[in-house]
Amino acid sequence: MEMKKREYYLKAAATFLISTGLVIAVLTALNWIPSLIAPEEFRRYSSLEAAKKSLDLHAVHLPVFLPEHLNLESLPSEVFAQTKPFQLVIMHFRFRNTREIGLAIHQVALGAQHHIDSKIRLNEVSQQNRVSLKGRDALLISALCDNNAPCSQISWTEAGNTLTVTGKISARDLIRVAGSMIPGP
Predict the structure, then answer these.
(1) In sequence order, what DSSP letters do the residues of 149-169 get, joined into one string?
(2) What is the mean pLDDT of residues 29-38?
C-alpha cells in the first residue's frame, strides 16, 4: 500500500512539473509572436546590440566618455527602440550605487512627430541657452528634477536625427557627455 502511495505522488509530481513546463513554453512562445510579426514596433530590448541586430540600426549615438565621478554604468541598462513609423531609440543609464536612472538618451528621426516622456523629468526649468556643441547648434536646459535634484538636458541634430540627452548631472558634465557622442575631434 505504501509503495502505491509513493508511486501515485511521484506520478502526480511529474505530471505537475511537465504541465508547468508546457505552460511556461507556451507563454514564452506567445510572448515572442508580436516581435516576430512586427519587430520594428516600439519595444524593449535586452541590449543595444540586440536592438541594432533586430532592427538593422546603423547609426546609434552613444557617449564614449562618461566621467568617472558621475558613477554611471558604461552601458545602457534599458534600451527601447522602433523603426516604424519612424526610427526611435531610447537608452537609460543607471547610477552604479543607487540603480536609479541618471542619464537618458532619446534619438529620434528628424521631423518625426512623437512625444514620449523621459524617465528623467524636468520639473522646474531655471535656464535655457543656445550653445555650440562641437559646431552644432544645441539647446541646453538647466532645471530641477524629482526631489528638487539639479538636472540638465541638451538637444541637437546629428545625421538626420534629433538627439536629446537628459541627466541628473550638472550642465557642464552633460555637455562633456553629449560632446563625446558626436563623431570627430
Answers:
(1) -EEEEEEEEETTEEEEEEESS
(2) 51
